Amino acid sequence: MFGLRGKSGSFDLRRDFAASLVVFLVALPLCVGVAVASGVPAELGLVTGIVGGLLTGLLPGSSLQVSGPAAGLTVLVYEAVQEYGVAALGVLVLAAGLLQLLMGALRLGRWFRAISVAVVEGMLAGIGLVLIAGQLYAMADTKAPSSGIDKIAGLPGMLVATMGSGTALTAFGLGAGTIAVLVLWKKLPKAVQVVPAPLAAVALATAASALFELPVAKVEVQGLLEAVQPPGLSDLDRLAGVGVVGTVLAFTLIASAESLFSAAAVDRLHDGPRTDYDKELMAQGAGNTVCGLLGALPMTAVIVRSAANVQAGARTKASRVMHGLWLLLFAALLPAALGVIPLAALAGVLVHSGCKLVPVRQLGKLWREHRGEALILAVTAVAIVAVSMFEGVLIGLALAVAKTAWETSHVRIDVIDKGAGPIQAHLTGNATFLRLPKILDTLEALPQNRPIELHLAGLRHLDHACRMSLEHWAARHSAEGVEPVRMASVT
């Protein structure tokens, strides 16, 4: 029914089983880290990972990408939890999931591919900057300011205070060591790299904390059943608020865009079945609907886990379903194991993840080749840091639309003056109000004492504002006592 068959039509249990273990080991520290950074119990991150495996993993759409809580939504979830409380999170995620289901049913999934890549990368870069800044405070076991600007502005003071505190310096050193392990892990022998870098980094930090009895904060454990808080009917009243609606729309836009862009990236990593974007959007919607009913974190498809799944040799959906099963068994049988993990180590993992969201290397190349796109990326990122997630994305989308409108309204004016007879002005391209200054400056510079022929047949589009302005110019020019301007209309 759910099609657990790969391109060859066979179920490769050995490969899928091995891949599921790899994905589980990658997902475990990330699920916990994202939950803690979002300001919710660590168990809720595991719940989202479980739903992403056992439910979304079974549904049609993309065959090999893996879903779960993502760093890309951490900042937005944290802001929502601070504003409305953990109890309201389920309603927000539930509404976003239902909206995704509706969009998938209306076959809008493919339209997310039309979103400007610069806006999406700017969105992720802005998220990454805020995530890095916030988690640097967590690395020092220090409470971070609420706004993105305050987080960044307060970093020098936080670092100075950390240097003067032995406890904070110990925690920060543990987090820095975690980042070092993540960065250097790829340079170790292949046999060592069988263990995923995030798991190794967190495990080493946990071992160091226990061995040297370091005075650092640990993950607080509530228990799986205690952490799950399904929304009540009274919580649904929150959806009437304008701010809540904006948060739901932001959840929906970011989760959907990140999932579908991830699907496109994963499709390039394997030669199996291609993603059906509408079905994948519905699969993500179904997962978020269930996560909302459980009061858990929102989910997206995550490129790190998805790439690990493909690179580990996964052939079918079975690998991602089994990874959800391993998360469930861990949450049910070993929940106390979370209580020994230092918060500074998880913060280090998320700082590293945040750095990967900021396309520093690509930005230079983008600036050289497409400066308009680079500007949109930078403005979107800065707006997210300075204002908020939702407004920043809207600003980026508005800039992308304005840039496209400007580029598609290209018009060319060729003036032919043979010295005798009328001057000919030929307009070609798209004449819109955006290009009126250029058009009128050229026409008004023509000699007043010569007859003029204005040829418009080469225009593909002439909007109302341009037509009226050209007619007014022709009337003014003709009033100078010379032969009236002759206009050849658009054919």
TrEMBL record:
Subcellular location: Membrane
Keyword annotations: Membrane, Transmembrane, Transmembrane helix
Record's keyword annotation contains Metal-binding: no
Record membrane topology: Multi-pass membrane protein
One Pfam family here: Sulfate_transp
Domain SLC26A/SulP transporter: 13-380
Transmembrane parts of this sequence: 17-37, 44-64, 84-102, 114-138, 158-185, 239-261, 325-354, 374-402
Stored InterPro entries: SLC26A/SulP_dom, SLC26A/SulP_fam
Protein name (Swiss-Prot/TrEMBL): SulP family inorganic anion transporter
Species this protein is from: Streptomyces sirii
